[in-house]
Design goal:
It is an enzyme of class 2 (transferase). The chain has 10 helices and 14 strands. With 309 residues, it is an alpha/beta fold.
């Protein structure tokens, strides 16, 4: 799969070292196809790591994909250089008149705040509202999933007594296209202090398609199939949880070692195959449903919403 990236995009060298094909922008312009246009709203502090993790997964599609990264402008980004953001990220003002085939909204380390206390909440709400008419499909990750469920459906967060941290077994509750090729049981990384109000979920037009062994909903989808909510982190690299654990310990946070993560003292990656498969299935799904002419996405979304009423 050729991901279309700027020649000097930092993640490009990492992906090429892993034998992942990232096509140069100059070559892509000579290919007579309509690539999928994907937008990633990166809310994570370490943006370059998240870029690599997500690009690694979407690289499994045989489709050509144009990827744009979106930044929040109402927030000071302390962990990524302004030069990187200015060169490789767009403001919402630059995309709001455009349509995209897919949007990914990442998690963010703000889940212990009320949604309205997050300094960029109004801007995020504007982006989520725009996505309902201008994007064919949206994947929300972790806090991004909680934010989407709260804004679109009024589902509240529920605080845990301690951090849910590790790799947890999931069970498919409803077969869906996103699970093509999945085992009936699979593993997914989790790193969060909050969950969602399960009773409220049952009262809304939301399908729970996967749960963990404790009965918590972990993958959900809106009734019109436009919005997908991942409570966990398929995109995590093999050592991401260990880095987070060590960082918490250095900060004096009493985080327990991630569960089901180490085997004989070594990190055991048990989610890699399903992670690649999930994003491959999602992009294939988007390709099947999105119109050839991007501007027709708005009409498609109107029809989709009407069918779900």
């Amino acid at each position: 799969m050729p991901i279309r990236l700027a020649a000097d995009f930092p993640a490009k060298a990492v992906l090429e070292s892993e034998d992942i094909f990232a096509i140069a922008d100059s070559r892509a312009k000579h290919q007579d196809i309509r690539p999928l246009k994907l937008l990633i709203l990166n809310l994570m502090p370490n943006k370059i790591d998240t870029e690599i993790h997500l690009l690694r997964l979407i690289s499994q599609s045989p489709l050509q994909i144009d990827v744009n990264f979106l930044k929040i402008t109402s927030h000071e980004h302390k962990h990524t250089s302004k030069t990187h953001l200015d060169e490789f990220y767009l403001d919402f003002s630059q995309v709001k008149e455009t349509c995209y085939d897919g949007l990914i909204i990442t998690g963010a380390p703000v889940e212990q705040l009320a949604f309205e206390e997050v300094d960029y909440w109004p801007e995020l709400v504007e982006i989520m509202e725009w996505s309902q008419s201008s994007v064919t499909s949206v994947v929300h990750i972790c806090w991004g999933a909680q934010a989407g469920l709260y804004h679109h459906f009024g589902v509240d967060k529920v605080a845990f007594k301690e951090k849910l941290f590790g790799i947890y077994k999931q069970a498919i509750k409803h077969q869906f296209r996103l699970f093509r090729g999945f085992d009936d049981r699979f593993w997914m990384p989790q790193s969060r202090y909050t969950g969602i109000d399960e009773e409220q979920v049952r009262q809304k037009k939301i399908r729970v398609i996967a749960k963990d062994e404790s009965g918590q909903s972990t993958i959900l989808i809106s009734e019109d199939e436009h919005d997908i909510f991942l409570m966990g982190h398929f995109e995590y690299g093999t050592d991401t949880l260990e880095k987070e654990y060590l960082r918490d310990r250095e900060r004096g946070i009493a985080t327990a070692k991630p569960q089901n993560y180490y085997e004989d003292g070594n990190i055991h990656n048990s989610w890699r195959a399903q992670a690649h498969l999930f994003y491959h299935n999602w992009l294939n799904d988007v390709y099947q449903f999105t119109p050839y002419r991007l501007e027709e996405i708005r009409q498609l979304q109107k029809e989709r919403k009407l069918r779900s009423i």
